[in-house]
Amino acid sequence: MNAPLPNQTLNAVQASDLAALPLIEKWVSFASVSRDSNLPIIEFTRELLESHGAQCRLSYDDSGKKANLWATLPAADGETKTGGLVLSGHTDVVPVDGQPWDTDPFKAEVIGDKLFGRGVTDMKSFSATALMMLPELARRKLKRPLHFAFSYDEEVGCIGVRRLIADMVDQGFRPAGCIVGEPTGMQVVIAHKGKHAYKTSVRGFEAHSSLTPQGVNAVEIACEFVANLKAMHRRLVEHGPFDEIFDVPHTTIHTGVIAGGTALNIIPRDCDVTWEIRHHHLNAPVLLFNEAKAFADSLLPAMHAVAPDTGITHKLNSVLPGFATDAGSDIARLCFACADVDASTGAGKVSFGTEAALFHQVGVPTIVCGPGHIAQAHQPNEWVTLEQLAWCERFMRRLANEICLN
Ligand SMILES: [Zn+2]
């Protein structure tokens, strides 16, 4: 079950109450869809950060058309490397192609009590709100360094941030904590599931469809494999193991794509199945994969009896680790205080993956906390309530009180 949202409600928020709104609008105006260059938004942001005294580093993808931005506001004593926080967000957004938008997706627009635009929830509002604080942070001086981490290609598999983190480690930065501003409704999320994505390929044997005993039907064998995945999933739903703090309290197994066959009168030779395991810490994904593979292996003797060149192969396409941060850690306590949620009941765990796991992996305790809800992410007419934006501003102002000298 999800932890409850903060119980305080803000008075009806007006657009004019939101100091970060102009910067959110500016960030949304960059159409930084993952497939395109993100250099315009990175260059704008680098200039803004440097104008407030931040030291910036860019790390590029192989094409040179996309970059991560790592920026450090030094502590009052000049320290830049050790301790302090990272505020992290991705600059890319998912495409709008084919989606029925009622507004221009790259022109943020306030309508009623909501702000509409691509990325207002996932996840430009958090980053822009953090940047809004720059003049105040520079004026009030920092106890420890503060880092901003803005990545490319999050939406296509958390690709960019891996280089940013490698560079961070190479350069000797050792932050004490990280806040990733993915949409959590400003709930303090201390864990998310990991994901293993696979492609299973069935190689059958072609024959005329009137001669089924002489062929090996790859589509039908793939369907048996998928049906077994579904049976494994049902067992997890019914018997767990369960971690009730997660929004979906059990590990899940899901098939996303089946592709195979060419015509009704041909016994299909090939069929590919793309599927995933999303696991919490109580399940080892490798054991579940081994179980699925053992089932596939059990189908082989009958296939080989008809045609020896048939088979079933599996490829691990991607791994995003899960993460879990102690609810009693310094970074969690800081976020509970800034988000104004109760530490004993307010910690959340979610099933979607984020860059948090990759910071966690190199020893940086990480929290996910940002405005908006994942249900609005990637949708046409993506929106965030003005109240959520006000929550985020309040979070940042409280954070400034914690991390500034005066
Ligand atoms: Zn996101």
Task: Give a written overview of the molecule.
The protein is α/β, with parallel strands linked by helices and 406 residues long. It has two domains: 15-192 and 322-403, 3-Layer(aba) Sandwich (Aminopeptidase), CATH 3.40.630.10; 194-320, 2-Layer Sandwich (Alpha-Beta Plaits). 31% of the residues lie in helices and 22% in strands. Strand 4 (109-111) and strand 5 form a beta hairpin. Helix 6 (218-239) runs antiparallel to helix 7 (285-298) and helix 9 crosses helix 11.
Mean pLDDT: 95
The CATH homologous superfamily of the largest domain? Zn peptidases
Number of helices: 11
CATH class category of the largest domain: Alpha Beta
Give the ligands present: zinc ion
For the biggest β-sheet, the strand order reads 1-2-6-3-7-15
What does this entry show, briefly?
The chain has 406 residues and is an alpha/beta fold.
Helix and strand topology:
Layout: H1 21-29, H2 39-50, E1 55-60, E2 67-73, E3 85-90, E4 109-111, E5 114-116, H3 124-132, H4 134-140, E6 146-151, H5 160-170, E7 177-180, E8 188-192, E9 194-203, H6 218-239, E10 252-260, E11 270-279, H7 285-298, H8 300-306, E12 311-320, E13 323-324, H9 330-339, E14 347-350, H10 356-361, E15 366-368, E16 383-385, H11 386-403
Parallel strand pairs: 3-6, 3-7, 7-15, 8-14
Antiparallel strand pairs: 1-2, 2-6, 4-5, 5-16, 8-13, 9-11, 9-12, 10-11
Helix pairs in contact: 1-3, 3-11, 6-7, 9-11
The protein binds zinc ion.
Zinc ion binds at residues 90, 122-123, 154, 182.
